[in-house]
Amino acid sequence: xxxxxxxxxxxxxxxxxxxxxxxxxxxxxxxxxxxxxxxxxxxxxxxxxxxxxxxxxxxxxxxxxxxxxxxxxxxxxxxxxxxxxxxxxxxxxxxxxxxxxxxxxxxxxxxxxxxxxxxxxxxxxxxxxxxxxxxxxxxxxxxxxxxxxxxxxxxxxxxxxxxxxxxxxxxxxxxxxxxxxxxxxxxxxxxxxxxxxxxxxxxxxxxxxxxxxxxxxxxxxxxxxxxxxxxxxxxxxxxxxxxxxxxxxxxxxxxxxxxxxxxxxxxxxxxxxxxxxx
Length: 278
Fold this sequence. Notes:
Strand content: 15-25%
Oligomer: single chain
Number of strands: 16
Radius of gyration: 21 Å
Shape: globular
Order of helices and strands: EEEEEEEHEEHEEHEHHEEEHE
Number of helices: 6
Distance between the termini: 33 Å
Largest sheet: 7 strands, parallel
Structural class: alpha/beta
């Protein structure tokens, strides 16, 4: 491999995709039009990372990536991918942690990520944390971090959509998009903890239907001038929601999914499959 005279910034890495298969296992030649896009490649250049979160791959490492990941770059006759890396703050602390000091530490991490050119800042949501665990709520936490994040994108990663009234969600997410100056990513998920479903009175058997109902209604509230809706949790009669997102027609939607059925839902209802870190 010849030395590459490109140096990615910050958290970016440059990947040289592996060659696509030319034959099937039985020896049938695959035409160019039917070849699968590679999902494996070799790292050919890495950025410096940040002080607290260095890039953990090195030149020569072989990595797997999503089918539609990265930005394609042709350099000196070779196809490469430029990939972006974000910082996910779990915001979960032990019960004896000083939460004010912990918040200061996380703000410092955001500053490092911002100053070294990281792309996206994310955090997640839970209610009624169990055991030796506590965390700040997602929306006020990200609202506090947005002024510290500079040009980074801000992602709800994820908002537990079917726990919240869709009018609340639509206005809150629109407000965050305004506060972030149009850099918000609307990450949503179904959730999995009974204690949360019970606390918000989301009955079994209706969780998926309510999730899909709310996601569709939130988008209508962002774009339509006369919204009418009648369900057991939300009644609207020719309503126009006046606070709208900066991004038109809406912020990008990432949908969390852990199995094939939900991945198909992500393909049908969102812009990206939000893969969890587990």
